[in-house]
Amino acid sequence: MDLNERLLSFISRSPTAFHAVENTARALADAGFEELIETQDWSLAPGARCFVRRNASSLIAFRVPRQAPTGFLLSATHSDSPCFKLKESAVFSSDGYVKLGVEKYGGMLCAPWLDRPLSLAGRVTLREGSTIVSRLADLARPVALIPNLAIHMDRSANEGKSYDMRTDMPALFSLAGAKGPEALVAEALGVKEEDILSKDLFLYPCTPGTVWGAENEFISSPRLDDLQCVFGCLQGFLEAGDSSCLTALCIFDNEEVGSSSKQGADSSFLTDVLRRVCFALGMDESGYLRCAANGFMVSADNAHAVHPNHPDQADRCERPVPNGGIVIKYNANARYTTDSVSAAVFSEICRAAGVPVQRYSNRADKPGGSTLGSISLTHLSLECVDIGLAQLAMHSCYETAGAKDTEYLVRAMREFYSRSPRKTPAGISL
């Protein structure tokens, strides 16, 4: 229960990718990690513990071993979740109502967003004297709602529904004459509204996360995908023992929209950081490549549990359930990175940690999407396994998972980060 309450607190304080990275950075700083800035020179010594942010929405933390690194041990998670992003000029009025124009961010289930109290958070870029700076904002109270159309006016509402972003999904913000969203954000930040130059603001549900069930066996919350894995990998990283490898926690933004941004998994962020670390330690390109060849990545993004009302949507044999343990994900077309080698290595790590393992692949007639691992491997070649925690209602604004599974992930990642694997022609020694 304590771990779940900490998870739900982390999610509550992380309404956007920017806030998730800020809260991760604070946890790292509290644990003694030093922040490095990409525009500055890096001076590193054996035993250094540092982290780097890019765009304030992606982060890579690393721990340098006491001797020259023998490889890389990495985890990859993502900070973003499907949601509604406010248009830059979002406010419009009709019939005495003030509404907010929005765009879909990522592949989302729209229906659960309706008739829920929503708040507003994100990043605001503003003028401070002659400098342009960015600040995080969170109104932290209900300020908007997307109302359903009454059944009397839409008799087919329960017979299948498609949503038009322009007409169905604008958010009701206020009645005419009230303050606009920028005014509320300016008040929250203690700045002048005219000093706000631009913004990245998102709606998020105010419904708090909860532990529930006949025996408290479930957790439900916004943004379990993928902040549950962010939190679990972070805790495992912080609790891990020594390794001869360079260990790193990677949190990328924009996974839900393809990762093709300067801070996404399809950017140079990971390789930029790893190269700079190796070179700051006196290694050359050949040393960097040797570490990559002896590297291993855990790509951690939640997995689909068998649905209690639609079990036919799952594969016949691979049917993960909440609290059943970590899910290893497979795909014949390499949309997931798992192969027999990486699955065996991670399964052995889980066995040593006392963590059960489940397996998942998409139903044969349902294609799946690519992952952080498969995208990252186009820039850095190493062994990789795709994993997740079983959950229901993925990409809803309120998702459900098992109350035991976060602890399983923490234990597995603590064991993973404490290892010093060595890859040889004969196999991999753990």
Provide structural commentary.
This protein has 430 residues and is an alpha/beta fold. The protein has two domains: 2-81 and 222-429, Aminopeptidase; 83-205, Aminopeptidase i, Domain 2 (Roll). Helix content is 24%, strand content 29%. The chain contains nine helices and 22 strands. It has helices at residues 2-12, 17-30, 181-189, 224-239, 269-280, 285-293, 340-353, 372-376, 405-417; strands spanning 34-36, 49-54, 58-63, 72-78, 83-94, 97-105, 118-128, 131-138, 171-175, 196-205, 210-212, 218-221, 246-252, 296-300, 303-304, 326-329, 357-360, 383-388, 390-392, 399-402, 422-424, 427-429. The chain has a nine-stranded mixed beta sheet, with helices on both faces. It has a six-stranded antiparallel beta sheet with strand order 8-7-10-5-6-9, sandwiched between helices. Strands 11-12-20-19-15 form a five-stranded mixed beta sheet, with helices on one face. β19 (390-392) and β20 (399-402) form a beta hairpin. The longest helix is centred in the middle third of the chain and has 16 residues, at 224-239.
The CATH topology annotation of the largest domain reads as Aminopeptidase
Biggest sheet, spatial arrangement of strands: 1-2-3-13-4-14-18-16-17
Oligomer classification: single chain
Structurally, the number of domains stands at 2
- Can you tell me the residue ranges where pLDDT is under 50 for at least 5 consecutive residues? none
**CATH superfamily name of the largest domain?**
Zn peptidases
By CATH reckoning, the class of the largest domain would read Alpha Beta
Spatial extent as radius of gyration: 22 Å
Strand content: 25-35%
Supply the helix-strand structural class. alpha/beta
Architecture of the largest domain, CATH level 2?
3-Layer(aba) Sandwich
> Using DSSP, what is the number of strands?
22
Largest sheet: 9 strands, mixed
What's the tally of helices?
A: 9
Determine the N-to-C terminus distance.
32 Å
Helix content: 10-25%
